[in-house]
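Why Amino acid ABC transporter substrate-binding protein/permease? Reviewers of the renewal asked for a concrete example.
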Amino acid sequence: MRKWLMSLIALASLAIGVLISSPAVHAATPNYTITTDTTFPPFEFQTDKGDYRGIDMDMLKEISKRENFTYKLKPMSFNAGVQAVQAGQVDGIVAGMSITDERKKMFDFGTPYYKSGIVMATTDKSKIKGLSDLKGKTVAAKTGSAGADYAREISKKYGFKITYFNDSNTMYNDVAIGNTVAAFEDQPVMAYAIKQGTKLKIVTDPAKGNWYGFGVKKGANTELLKKFNTGYAAIVKDGTYDKIVNRYLGKGSYNYKKNAADKVEKQTTIWSLFNENKSALFTGLVKTLELTLVGIVLAGIWGILLGILGVMPSKFARGLSTTIIYIFRGLPMLVLAFFIYIGIPNLTGQKIPAFTAGVITLILNEGAYIGAFVSGGFKSVDSGQLEAARSLGLPYGKAMRKVVMPQGIRLMIPSFINQFIITLKDTSILSAIGIIELTQTGTLIIARNLQGFRVWLMIAALYLIVITLLTWLSNWVEKRIK
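Here is what the prediction returned.
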């Protein structure tokens, strides 16, 4: 006992020492969470090795070295990233973000570091030669981008409609297949995509040039903003910034674009593309399965509780179950995910990790569906079973546990397996809040090589393989319980 007590005291002392020393370490080397849209080359994208490259990424890396701070990148769609900064879930955003008067009301920006302009691109065979040819047509723009703002401003003047997309590659493909006639995009981004093999051409000169800036929530993270400005001034002064830009856009420097284009040419088969990205795909699949398993187990517990409440004699319990199921079955999963990850931190000021927010979303959404069929499963058991058990002197609770529930659960097992499959597919929605599961992994790969059809074919095949295995499991379980 004495040895055990001494060990406990030693562990407690160690824990206290860590807690005391942690602030000093943090003060010496601050760590920040910074969001980025990794589908915006040449400013930010993920390589086949899983690291992040591009003008913004290299610039941030150099600044952090000079200003002695560390950071964790949080990739998500641009629109979601903007909201995450406003909610205080992340400390800053670097994503080719145009500095506008409207954004200045919500963000504090660092020193502007790159001036761009908006161009319009069409297919090679398109009859659209300029803005005046857009009357009565539909164009594509990326949600929350300067290109979308510009398209919106001139839409009435030129008489066209706009369709919005969350990532550039989907927008380009929409134009390429003819659903929309043109895309509005930042000039360097569009030029880079075309050099990577996107079958579009730029037909307008850059318009409404805006400066890009590093942003933080207005009135917050002033120290981070100060470090960015100081570090940026240093890399401009010693020529590092020019080298970074030339690496991706300039002539006569290390021609990364040519190397990337050559890599695309070599990817002539789905198999070679799979081999190059199998590590990232496996990691994304593992994250998907992790979300699914944790989500379905906890959602199952929550759903069974709701189902039990739904068959209780108490009107209040039944009403509570019905109300909860109605609310969370009625809310779109994407809305629920954004509310938990972005809305709640706005109200409470407390950050919620993306994985935690994703699991909570699955619990509430999938749990509502489970609660509905659990309640229905219990009700499907002949009422005479419960009456007979009660007539034998069993209390209501014991009669439910011993007689009704075993029969009801037996009927529900195929429904549970089916819900497992649905949950697996629903995890793809959580990519919107920055969880890098299988679908988001595909998006990141496409941003690098722009081979949307092949990558989505691989993603679909992986989902189908897992779902097929689960379907076999469902059939096997169903036969065993008959």
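The two ends are 54 Å apart (CA to CA). This is the kind of structural detail the renewal will allow us to pursue systematically.
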